[in-house]
Amino acid sequence: EKGGYEHFMLKEIYEQPSVIKDTYRGRLLANKGIIQMAGIEDNLEKFLNAERIIIVACGTSWHAGLVAEYIFEEFARIPVEVEYASEFRYRNPIINPKDVVIAISQSGETADTLAAIKLAKERGAFVFGVCNVVGSSISRETHAGAYTHAGPEIGVASTKAFTTQITILTLISLRLAKAKGTLSNSDFHRYLQELEVIPEKVAEALATNDIAKTIASIYKDAPNCLYLGRGYNFPVALEGALKLKEISYIHAEGYPAAEMKHGPIALIDEKMPVIVIAPKQGHYDKVVSNIQEIKSRSGKIIAVVTKGDTQVRELADHVIEIPDTAEALTPLLTTIPLQLLSYHIAVMRGCNVDQPRNLAKSVTVE
Length: 366
Ligand code: F6R
Hints:
By secondary structure, the protein is an alpha/beta fold. The chain is 46% helix and 17% strand. It has 15 helices and 12 strands. The strands form 3 sheets. It has a 5-stranded parallel β-sheet with strand order 4-3-5-6-7, sandwiched between helices. It has a 5-stranded parallel β-sheet with strand order 9-8-10-11-12, sandwiched between helices. Helix 5 runs antiparallel to helix 12 and helix 10 packs parallel to helix 15 (330-348). Fructose -6-phosphate binds next to helix 5 and helix 12. Fructose -6-phosphate binds at residues 58-61, 105-107, 110, 113, 157-158, 242, 246, 362-363.
């Protein structure tokens, strides 16, 4: 049932090219310039009239929501707030009938997310679900939704659920951008084409497995680890750190790279591995200067870079190359080596990768 893989987690990591494709199949018609999802088409007016989108989720799904915040604001120009469901539900939040709430949940059973949905509904918001498990409580409680087609995720650490959530949310924001005219025609078509070839690029990113394993063998005994990224890849840094802590029990923190100098830089010494997500687009130059700051304090730098990168390669102790893509889609690729790195470190430390201590696959109590 593990399909020849040693653990479900590894199998699920390797399934990502095909489940991302399953998630956009029939919804993304790149050559025709069409994105269609029943849940969006049926409620298009609600989305187009939305003054704000509030995303509620927990854990890795919350990280997917953060990536979506960047994508929705950039593509569809709709203000987005991303909330931990557990905080949102107890805060007496301000919710207006013109708010659209998107709840993201792999299991569809997370107690806090479910409670946040009920509260938003009571206050008149339209609530849209992004779930993986068909017929789950959250998929039934929401007004409409779109399923990720990741298939059953058995490993407790979320992997393919995360990348398929990002895929769906990207499709939604592109659909809205088209309706609102907030992306140029050429950009819209370019994103559709890029999204269509993403599965092949994810497959290429999986070829970093050997280097991830080598890096894992060097840093497996580190007591701490720092993950840095900017823009679209800031949430990927958070997700990379979560993946490492939950399965390997190494303390890890994710930060927006620019926040370094506001505190975390004090932690850097020659024993601290720092994983920096540095694809060539966007804030590349700024990330390079962040890397220089780490290097001058003797931190160990593991950088995820775009294939062919030379500048970071000169500074970093290790580089992991991923294929080039549109900046907004880089999280789908940069995530992959971080999953592999955590996996190998956990295996080398003798941890129970698929069922880490103290964790449950669905958190049905608050
Ligand atoms: C991390 C992880 C958890 C879940 C969180 C939300 O790998 O699996 O952080 O992401 O418990 O679960 P869902 O998405 O089922 O609501």
